[in-house]
Amino acid sequence: METKPVITCLKTLLIVYSFVFWITGAILLAVGIWGKVMLGPYISLIADNSTNSPYVLIGTGTVIIVFGLFGCFATCRGSPWMLKLYAMFLSLVFLAELVAGISGFVFRHEIKGTFHRTYTDAVLNYNAEDEASRAVDYLQHTLRCCGVYNYTSWFGSVYYPSNGIPASCCINSSDCNPEDLRNATLALNKVYHQGCYERVTSFMETNMAIIAGVTFGIAFSQLIGMLLACCLSRIITANQYEMV
């Protein structure tokens, strides 16, 4: 088989791969920006302190976009050292994603424990005004849950003695007045019965296998790019082939 058709085929495959890799970076960048703008207050409920997750996604996405373009340039240029550098970067991305996926799966119970602590603290110190309180309201309204384990979690909060259970717990906001929420007996039929901790942890357990599978699938896809880049670099070097 002639060398030139093989090189052309490998270049085509690597350019397609680099383009897909670039799109992955753009998606991570978009998700990071969206997470920072829209979900900043709510992500804080699963961390003891302010989380840097959106910034990690933004930084990772930006780096992938740059190296995705670099991969396309290196492939079109037919430079062996550039292709080796690209393969080295892909190997680093592979290792980082692999470690992140394994860590997330192994420490999932710690993540649940952290969420339990931070969410319990947010409920007990709820005031309906600060960022954590708005995050609690959003979570309860969106997931249709109330309190940590159930609506009785609110009985120990600083908010309950004066205001009762927050309105975000109401099943039907039009049939839920402040007087009902101050009365534990009447509130029983007005608010959601399932706690938010159970909702969130149940979602995590149900989807952990899917999340892990997607993470490892994306990670191992880097091996394809590494293989293509290394093969192309070796063939170009062996045959002293250059793009004109």
TrEMBL record:
Keywords noted in UniProt: Disulfide bond, Glycoprotein, Membrane, Transmembrane, Transmembrane helix
InterPro entries, per database record: Tetraspanin/Peripherin, Tetraspanin_animals, Tetraspanin_CS, Tetraspanin_EC2_sf, TSN6/7_LEL
Subcellular location per the Swiss-Prot or TrEMBL entry: Membrane
Keyword Transmembrane helix: yes
Keyword flag Transmembrane helix: yes
Membrane topology according to the record: Multi-pass membrane protein
Chief subcellular location: membrane
Spans traversing the lipid bilayer: 12-35, 55-73, 85-107, 208-232
Intrachain disulfide bonds: 146-169
Family matches, as Gene3D superfamilies: Tetraspanin (1.10.1450.10)
Gene Ontology CC terms, in alphabetical order: plasma membrane
Signal peptide: none
Family: Belongs to the tetraspanin (TM4SF) family.
Function: May be involved in cell proliferation and cell motility.
This protein's name: Tetraspanin
Source organism per UniProt: Etheostoma spectabile
